[in-house]
Structures
1.
Amino acid sequence: MKVVKSLLLGSAAGLVAVAGAQAADLPVKAKPVQYVKICTLYGDGWYYIPGSDTCIQFSVYIRSDYGYNVAGARTPNYAGAGGAQDRTTSNYSTRHRGSFSIDTRTQTAYGTLRTFSQFHLQNENTVESTNVARAFIQWGGFTFGHTVSFTDHEGSVGALGTLHAPQNDSNTDVSVNGTNQIAYTWQLGNGVTLNVGADERRVKSIADLSRVGSVSAGTEPVSARAGSNHPNPWVALRVNQAWGRASVAVVANHNEAAHFTGPFAGLCAGGNTATTYCGHPDDAWGWAVIAGTEIKLDFLSPGSRFGAYFNYGVGATAYSGGVNLVSPGLYGSGNQVAFGVLSDGVYVNGLGIQQTTAWTVGGGFEYYWTRNFSSTVYGTYTEVSYNSTVTDGRWFCGGGGAVAQPLNTAGTSCDPGFKFWTVGTHHDWFPVRGLRFAVDVMYTGIDSAMDGQTVTLTTKQGNRPSGVYSAKNPGITSVVFRAQRTWGAN
């Protein structure tokens, strides 16, 4: 009887222990789930971040580009090794990109607080890269961060759809790189804004022509620019109304050179050339005016539009000539070559900076044949010129205190100026929403200021030998095909 009683008591104790353990493992009462709510303040695709009054939107695109006669970033092969047009030139180019964007907005007593970031993961010609294309904050009229500049004009050829990187289109959004800036915007009403600010500097070379090897055909001059001390200030007026958009901006560019390379008498000689003993040219302020417009032509067909722009500047060729434009060096048949030198300014020992003048005009027309198929025609024209002090003094041919440069040694003129022009057509097909197929065909022409003269090139470009060439005006045709899938806001 005692054995049975002990067994019963032990079983009861075990059951109590097990029940206690199971009770301890039971889940506590869950808190109510806060579901994601749709935010209707800013259009489709916005949601409230749970537990906050901040709205968020995500967007992504996957893009594949295939190009012929183009280098990186869809650039026609008119300069560098590509401009040599020899057996070393890679005429086929590919670029594949995944892009991810995050946009957040919160209503405050001082207006909308916005943050935006965009990241590119890219493989271009088998080279992997990452890029923070956008990262900025906007609040109370201020913009801080990396974004499209307020100075970039409307009517951009790139904005009208071309897949090439328009070399003489000053819009930084074309290259997808943006700029670091601080800006303030006044809303003047009726779609008009006045903007002031300062951007990370967009500059080209300041060439010391007294330095051996400062200039080579088809490449950028070796820059003797001094260190940067401040961003470039600007002011811009922009209009966005039912008929379209327009903008005009004025930007200043401070050109500062390093020290003379001498040798001068006294301390600026021997091992002390190009030091503080030698002095430097006086600083010069460059400037540019950037203007453009885009006009809606919905009366022709929904989405159709026309865009045009005009830029002019002195000592600010990255604005007036284009941020993507470089010194051309395009070889044609036989011993023909088209070349030019792009710079913000040049100087020789003992003299000041002679700033380069550049102006650009461009335009395009986009027509929607149907709601999902459009065609664009476009063209651009840029002229880069040097003043009479440089050309009459034959600075690029070893005159006026310069050393002999690899340009013209036999002709009567020594002018490294040039004209750069493009004409092209672009076609877009959207078979379903968010899916795009496009093709762009463009012809690029280079007109040398020394056309018809004999030019002695003392440096090689690609596998082109040095020697005597005839300055001509050849051109190049390039083609780009794109496939892109987009979802979200892009």
2.
Amino acid sequence: MKRFLLALTAVGVLSGQSPAVTVFENARVIVDAGRPPIERGVLVVQNGRVTAAGDRGAVNAPANAARVDLTGKTVMPAIVNGHIHLWFQRGPLFAAESYTRENIVDQLNRYAVAGVAAVLSLGTDAGPIADAIRADQRSGKLGGALFRMAGRGIAPPDAGPANVAMKPSAYGVRTEEEARAAVREQAARGVDVIKIWVDDRNGTVPKLSPELARAVIDEAHKHKLKAIAHIFYLDDAKWLARAGVNGFAHLMRDREADDELVTLMRDNGVVIIPNMAINQNAIYTAPPDWLDDPLFRAVTTAEDADRIRASFNGRTAQSVERAAATFRGMERSVARMKAGGVKFAFGTDAGAVRDHVHAFTDHRELEIMVRAGLTPMEAIAAATSGSAELAGLTDLGALTPGKSADFIVLDANPLDDIRNTRRISRVYLRGREVDRGAITSRTQR
């Protein structure tokens, strides 16, 4: 087993060398979510990058190119997940000692199976393991979904992540100088965004004050970094929007979004990551049907799947109704934000709590966003170009010439039914096909 895992780590779970030029033809191609799909599309990939994308009659490919016929398939850009937490859970154990290179590499590989090109881990990556994995990916030694991060997030002392295992990974700051120093330290580390927590956890901890939050946001912008906030309360969202925050990692959950907040977010360019699947988990009175989805089974161990199934039994009617009421309010907030012109990104908060699983939850989140009022194309836009832009990943989010060739080949059209994003035929990251069979075999072992 150990030799098998090391082999996966070394080759990056990609299925070998690609030809110099490959032409993918005859598929429906969603080049980017801002334009209609090309019904008989051609995608040309050279050295890991898209060199052409267009209608079959309008693209001239080299005569010696390898050709892949995708008749009947749909091609879309690979997903970018803008809010996760890598990996504190292993089996039933949720603890700091589970944050290992082996676990993180395994999880990045599972994301690759699910068609995810990159993940942004928000604020719980304190030590050298994350830096080493990122360095290995940059040098080409390691594949899987790209690991991007906020490093250590910022909050008052002991007031960051709710989960006890994650709490030590966050800064605890008391003064403006401490807050600015934390930003400078993470900027020097090469993080992709800065994360703050503004939440009193039902009155049990102090919230990050407006003065300290403004200092963090200002210092982040000085270092050309965006600031993303964990929020819970509507009132906090409003002053953060005025303070220049770039995005919210959650919807507010005490009250629904109102017109004032929507206007503030739209006019100040504040991006919303709705992050609804983690709340939907609490509304079921019986095991949901997605537990039998083939993709869920492919990226989740049988032991974990059985434990998760059992967790949906024995809930009280009162707890389910409270959760359902909160969730309905979140759906209405999404619809209001869409109507008001707020820009959407995408994330799942996977890994934040026990058994909120990675990889498959991305596809659940897409379905939830559509049920809340987004069109399938709008949800795909949030999960591709929206998150790529928020995370500063200029190579991802679309299949236009010059972008990295990161895309999913689907057996059915997600614009007809967003659940078709789960019907994955192949995944290509950096122009090379992911060996999905090798990864899923290891997962099931």
3.
Amino acid sequence: MSIYAQPARDPGVIVTHPNRGKAVVQATRATVVLLLLASAGLVLIVTVGGWTLLWGAKPIEIGYVVVYVTLAFYAGRWNRGVLPVSAVLAVLLLIFALVAGPSWFVRDKAGFAQPTIDAGVLGTLTLLVVPLQILLIAFAMRGFRQGWNVELEQRQPGADLYAEAPPQPA
């Protein structure tokens, strides 16, 4: 038994999503999911690699990984509502990466405590997040315009239009 309320449908009605079958829409969905997972992976690598030097950013970065994986899951299930949320979070992460990237390169000198992964590599990975977020913003907004949520109700051929609907559970 499902805990979610299912909308009452007339007998003999088929609900279709015409936009979801298009190749460009499926490619956009796959790209958004891939970009979300790649972003989460890069943030996770930077977090683990710089764990000893990250002070206040640890909860934010872990939160980003969890939220991006969750958004990827829902985008994979055709949930259109996660697309603008993904774009907004991508803008914030883009700003964080632009600010944090150069600081890793500053640490790549003698006299600074070194992270688990070389600071130059972490700086490069952090700056790789920037174009990834730009692509995520573009594809999320493209997906939002494609109408993933559009439904069409059609009658099944030969369905009795005047049949009495089964009683709904209380």
4.
Amino acid sequence: MMGRPTGLQVALMLVGVAVIFAIDTFAPLDIEIAVLYAVVVIASADFLGRRGILLVCAVCVLQTLLSYGIVHSESFESGPALRALIGLCAIGIATLAALRNRKAAESLSDQAALLDLTHDAIFVRDGSDVITYWNAGAEKLYGWSRKETLGQKADALLKTKYPLSAGTTEQLDDPGRWQGELVHTRRDGSEVWVASRWAMQRDERGRRVATMETNSDITEQKQAEDALRHARSQIEHVTRISTLGELTASIAHEVNQPLAAIVTNGEAGLRWLLRDEPDLTEVRAAVERMIANGRRASDVIARLRALARKSNPSHTVLALNDVIADVIPLVEREMLNNDVALKLDLQAPAPLVLGDRVQLAQVVINLAVNAIHAMSQIEGRTRLLSISSKTLEDSNTQMAVLEIEDTGTGIDPKVASNLFSAFHTTKADGMGMGLSISRTIVESHSGSISAASGDRWGALFKIRLPVLQQGEEAAAADRPY
């Protein structure tokens, strides 16, 4: 909307009208000075409304007629009368142009006022990133008033941070539109996450003329996502500890076996030393076996500590077969207790994936233990746990596939749709979080997990993860997570 004209603007206009009147009336010139009133009328459109412009027009017309009457009151001459008529026509045309420009300006002003009604922050920057428009939503979100921002560089003012997924203006598509999440800095120094949408205007040569940026505050949403991620991590940790508790017998066996071997080899070595002629070759072999078994026990404990430790996910380059190798010793005793045989069919060389070793091991443990327990009451057929790894083409993308299959009771069609839902369980003492967490972990690795009943019996779980292609390993090592 129009603001009120300032005293200086009105004063300059009155001075201009007076000077033109004085020259037109008292200067001995044979030209029509009154046409200069058109300039006054057009200039008044910058600070006067429709009624004000018409008033200026009326004053200029009266001034023209008055000047003509003073100078030519005694005689009528066609030349001066024609010049006066030209002046009046110029004033009329200028008035029409000023009214039309004022109407267009007021329309733009009204549209701009509508942008102030939105809660979103909207601002426009030119091809040099200089802010040319700043709405009320931007004032509220960032803390700077419109006067303070106009003429400033947007990125420098807001200290824009582009997350890796956001890209930059060079990634705008052909229509000149882009959207993503950015981090801006407010006037008080605090940071705000925004969902940003850009619309670019180009000239006939394709050069960027202006960009309108619309930003919505999503800081609370991001904080909620972080809180949810933290809570999910806590639940994952609790579930992992619970699973390890179920595998206590296997874990104890894996640790006691090398410890017992150390004792046995130590006693044997001592006997070789106590002979009348110590057999140092046998003593050395016994010591080497003790060292090997000590390292084996240390490896088991290291794997347990990694699974039990609560830490943030860390994606590194992994061989899928190594994850399986981490899990098998932990479920071995559980298989023996339930008379379950193991069949491995692992691709060599192993497919490489990008992931968190502990999280993926948790998924394999969950699926393996579920499969073992599903076969615990089976009679009349072999209890077989099959684990395989392979690489498949999926829509021109290579996927590493891990399959875990059992010969148990299979999947009840009534519960198939809820199999990966939180708190859904068929175990009397289960929490119902294992498969739900497994799906979350796999999807966070850009993969997928599915389940189906076997052709005759049992269940088959498939995990699909993107395979790292040649040349991606080095890039993945430098990628921040």
